[in-house]
Amino acid sequence: MAIISPLPKYSFEEISQKLSNVDDLPTLPNIIDRIIKATEYERTGSKELMQIIANDQSLSAKLLKVANSAFYGLRFKVTTVDAAISTIGFNDVKKMAISAYAAKSFPTNVKTANFVLEKFWIHSIGVANIASIIAEKLGKSDTYQNDIFTGGLLHDIGKLIICQYFPKHFFLIILYTQTLNKEMLEIDETILGLHHGYVGNILSSFWELPIMFSKIICHHHLDKHIFGTQSETDFYLSIINIADTMARRMGIGASGNLRIPQYREDLLEILQIDNFFLEEISNYINEIKFQFDLLV
């Protein structure tokens, strides 16, 4: 099937200009920043985290449902937010809260066929969790794990921007991506002129995100990233790419791609991990992935 589009293509500068004039461009909720700052230190942040969650009935109900799930195997019913935090664990509750509020920050009126917003966020939450678990297994610091979790959560936000502000382009992108079983970034460039990583990078610049997040959002497909001497960027991008591949192979949510990717051997070498390592991670993710559905 030949790719045919009657729509105009745009440059990086043209999309930047268009988005800069949008009045309702999504913003990251201030409450996410509050959660991150409040939880830098568990001893002092637990109380504030509990207050934030307690004031959100929807999130409170979701956390209580997770705490009372068979995964934790408790013999008693958890009925308070404080008890839920203790049961689930401070860091995991923080990740759940950030995931839930990030999903709320974007429009929910997506009407593109074969692109379901809830499944998109389940995929993103899955990538975030897989990435942070890989970082933990590799002995990275708590700060590193938290950063890469956020990077994984936001890695595909460019797709949502295309969907919201270039809906006709996005319709064709989804149609050709799924019909031809291609990677979406290839079709993005053919239809829109710019792939979703670069569109997401434009949004990250408006949000003034740290450069590391911008690099993850822009280059997570590694289409134009050149690996050097195993820099910090190489590690971040390698973990995110492996996490994205695992989430897609496990069918966690749906990012718009139907193609089942293979793990890149060069990335496994950079991270010094093997198939046994990946299997161990995927087995654990299978046990907790029910949680991802509850957060959107």
Summarize this structure briefly.
The chain has 296 residues and is mainly alpha-helical. It is built from 17 helices and no strands. The radius of gyration is 19 Å and the shape is globular.
Question: Could you please describe the fold and organization of this structure?
Answer:
By secondary structure, the chain is an all-alpha fold. It has 2 domains: 28-105, no CATH class; 107-296, Hypothetical protein af1432. The chain is 66% helix and 0% strand. It has 17 helices and no strands. It has helices at residues 12-20, 30-38, 42-54, 57-67, 81-88, 90-104, 117-137, 142-154, 157-165, 167-180, 184-191, 196-207, 211-219, 232-249, 265-271, 275-288, 290-294. Helix 2 (30-38) runs antiparallel to helix 6 (90-104) and helix 8 (142-154) packs across helix 13. The longest helix is centred in the middle third of the chain and has 21 residues, at 117-137. The relative contact order is 0.14.
In CATH terms, the superfamily of the largest domain is Hypothetical protein af1432
User: Would you give the CATH topology of the largest domain?
Assistant: Hypothetical protein af1432
**Straight-line N-to-C gap:** 35 Å
CATH-level-2 architecture of the largest domain: Orthogonal Bundle
Tell me, briefly, the overall form: globular
**How many structural units, i.e. domains?**
2
